[in-house]
Structures are given as structure tokens and as C-alpha cells.
Amino acid sequence: MKPLEIKPGIYWVGGIDWNLRLFHGHVTPRGTTYNAYLIIDDKITLVDTVKYYMVNEMLDRIKEIIDPSRIDIVVSNHVEMDHSGGLPKIMELAPNAKVVTSPQGQKGLKRYYKQDNWDFIVVKSGEELNIGSRTLKFVHVPMVHWPDSMVTYIPEEKLLLPNDAFGQHMASTGRFDDEIGWDIVREAAAGYYSNIVLPYGENVLKALDVVEQLDIDTIAPSHGVIWRSYIDKILPVYRRWASNQTEPRALIVYDTIWESTKKIALTLQAGLEEAGVPVVVRFLQTSHISEVMDDLLESKAVLIGTPTLNNGMMPTVSALLTYMKGLRPKNRLGLAFGSYGWGGQGAREVAAAMQGMGMEMPLDTVNMLYLPDESEMVAVKEVGRKMGELILNIK
Ligand SMILES: Cc1cc2nc3c(=O)[nH]c(=O)nc-3n(C[C@H](O)[C@H](O)[C@H](O)COP(=O)(O)O)c2cc1C
């Protein structure tokens, strides 16, 4: 396994997880990488490690450069096990190495790995550590996306090691953004943002304020490719996502048993499109809830449909709403719709859940008895068209 020298004396020594398809509940069609970085200086420093089953891959790369027992410092920017999973092995091979982490990081690492003999250097936000010809500057970025989250900046190299921020779940042979292309990297970064970082927009904005003051030519995150050519593009996009700025687009998501709800969904789509609004339609039996979040990231409106099943909504819709609630999208327009046979609670429950998330619901819930007839469909299409007009006016 070859390491890759990303700057003179600084190597990517991570692992490539080509076959990962699910990462804590969201789909990863492109797999992922766990990025660790080895810095050769007076104090040999490893920044982050990899998931436990990639440890040997990381060690093979490190061994191409140095004997791992020579590592003096391991920086743990983030406790989560996809970045700390290799720490016990490194500490076994380099028992005198010091673990540099935030106070919350130390707490988390102790809880996960039950190691009392690791020698910690606990750093405050803004603290610096000289490792020879380079300085490591640590900035805490709490809740981007755990309380312990920290970034490491190396001013002499104009290099930011921000851990999960700016990450993308994407396995690739190229390690740099321009080897993949902006559109693909942006899409992968959006998928990562919408499923992991979205709830923490306010903290991301604070972190961006700090990052934008730094002299940076390379951002090397802990997942996916390293940013060197598209930094000027991704920073404003991150700011847009963090501010919940959207495009005048609509997302329709539904489940159905006998296709009445599907018919309503497609009729709403026709109305929205008539108003000039682009629409994505997702069927929850074939689309994963995390793919729905990818679409929601830049969509002004979301329309969610369910039949009534046993006095409530369908479990697929309930799972989506639970997931969406946790990810806390803001500044969205919402509409609930569905079909029912006698009680009709399903669509009403969806409307209540969307309201509970703070969505603006300007139009009445569309709840139709069994299969709507032609005149009812005309009314449904009109609802879609009105929603479209609201989306375009509100932009
Ligand atoms: C297993 C089952 C349970 C149902 N339970 C309810 C119910 O509790 N209340 C209700 O109003 N309709 C209930 N219905 C009727 C459906 O809501 C109705 O058939 C609706 O039109 C289905 O929409 P769809 O065609 O989009 O699947 C139930 C239907 C099925 C198949």
C-alpha cells in the first residue's frame, strides 16, 4: 500500500473503503475513505487514524515511510471510531507517543478505549504545538459534529486538517478534488452535509468565520478527497448549506399501497411544474431516507404523502420524518398529502410532524377518500400550482 505525499514531508496514510454502502444509517453508493496524515518533522506526528478494520492498511502505508514505533504525537481531532479506531494499535506500537486532543476528546477516548496509560496533551482552542519546522494550531469546533470536534491548522503549510468538516463519502483512486471533478465532489460533499452536518449550521457558520481568516491552500478532511483546486467553490457552498439557503425547487416524497397517494403525488408534480418549479419525486419503497435528505438540502419545499394505514401514517414515512426531524432543516415550505378509507389520520399526522419541525405550511393538507376522481385531481393540480407560485415568490 502506497502512501501519498500531499505536501513535502506530509503524507496521506489512510484507508479506502470501496465497498461501504451504509454509514451510520445513510447510504454511501461511492464507498468512503478514512484519511490519516503523517507529518515527518522533529516530532513525527500522525493526525487522526482510521476505522478499526482499516488499521493494517494504514500501517502498511506508514511503514513505507517510517517504523510506526517512531511516532511521537497522535492528534485526535475527533473521537468517533471511524477516526480513532486505529489509535489503540498505534499506541501499542508507539507506547511513548502523546495523544493530543480536546478536553471532550480525552473524555470520549477514555470512555471508548478504557486506556489509563495513554499520555494525553489536552489542548485548548487556539493552542499551538511546535513539532520542529511546523506549528500545529488547534481550533475547537464543538458540534461540528460532536462536542469534541477540533480542527488542526498548519500555518507554514497553509494546510487545514478539519476532520469531518468538508468531508465526502467517496472512495476513489485520485486523492485530490481536481482528479475527480467539481460536480462529483460537490454532490458527494452535499450528501455528507445533508446527512451528518445539517443540524449544526450555526456552528458551521462560526467555524467558517474562523477558516476564512486563515491562509489556506489545502483542506485535507478525514473522508473523501483533499481540496486544493475547489476551495474557493466549496467555502461559499458550505455557507449556503449552513444558512439553509435553498433553490426554488420542490421535493415530493411518498409511499403508497394501492397507488392513490402516488396519483396525488404525480398530480401535485404536474401543478408545480406548470408553475415553473423543478420537482424531484421519491418513492420511499425504492429511495432511502438519506437520499431524500440529499434532495431536501437545496429544495425550498417538501411535500410528503402517505396513505392511512391502521389509523396512522405508513412506517416508511414515519422513519423519514424521524430522520428529517433530527437533521433539523430550516426555512422550508411544507405540504402533507395522502389517501384514506375511513379515518384519514395518516396525512394529518404527517402535517403535524412537519409543523412540529417548524416548516411553514401555507396550504391545507390534501387528504382524499380512496382514489380521487377527475374533478378532484383538477383541484389537486391547482394545489401543486399554488405551491409552485409560493416557492417562486418566496425565493
Ligand atoms: C391494511 C390496511 C389498513 C388500512 N387502515 C386504514 C385506516 O386505519 N384508516 C383509514 O382511513 N384507511 C385505512 N386503509 C385504507 C387506505 O388508507 C386506503 O385504501 C387508501 O386509499 C390507500 O391509499 P394508497 O392507494 O395510496 O395506498 C387501510 C388500508 C389497508 C390496506
Automatic annotation (TrEMBL):
<dbReference type="InterPro" id="IPR001279">
    <property type="entry name" value="Metallo-B-lactamas"/>
</dbReference>
<comment type="similarity">
    <text>In the N-terminal section; belongs to the zinc metallo-hydrolase group 3 family.</text>
</comment>
<dbReference type="InterPro" id="IPR029039">
    <property type="entry name" value="Flavoprotein-like_sf"/>
</dbReference>
<dbReference type="InterPro" id="IPR036866">
    <property type="entry name" value="RibonucZ/Hydroxyglut_hydro"/>
</dbReference>
<dbReference type="InterPro" id="IPR016440">
    <property type="entry name" value="Rubredoxin-O_OxRdtase"/>
</dbReference>
<dbReference type="GO" id="GO:0016651">
    <property type="term" value="F:oxidoreductase activity, acting on NAD(P)H"/>
</dbReference>
<dbReference type="Pfam" id="PF19583">
    <property type="entry name" value="ODP"/>
</dbReference>
<protein>
    <submittedName>
        <fullName>Nitric oxide reductase</fullName>
        <ecNumber>1.-.-.-</ecNumber>
    </submittedName>
</protein>
<dbReference type="InterPro" id="IPR045761">
    <property type="entry name" value="ODP_dom"/>
</dbReference>
<dbReference type="GO" id="GO:0010181">
    <property type="term" value="F:FMN binding"/>
</dbReference>
<keyword id="KW-0560">Oxidoreductase</keyword>
<dbReference type="GO" id="GO:0046872">
    <property type="term" value="F:metal ion binding"/>
</dbReference>
<dbReference type="InterPro" id="IPR008254">
    <property type="entry name" value="Flavodoxin/NO_synth"/>
</dbReference>
<dbReference type="Pfam" id="PF00258">
    <property type="entry name" value="Flavodoxin_1"/>
</dbReference>
<feature type="domain" description="Flavodoxin-like">
    <location>
        <begin position="250"/>
        <end position="388"/>
    </location>
</feature>
<dbReference type="GO" id="GO:0009055">
    <property type="term" value="F:electron transfer activity"/>
</dbReference>
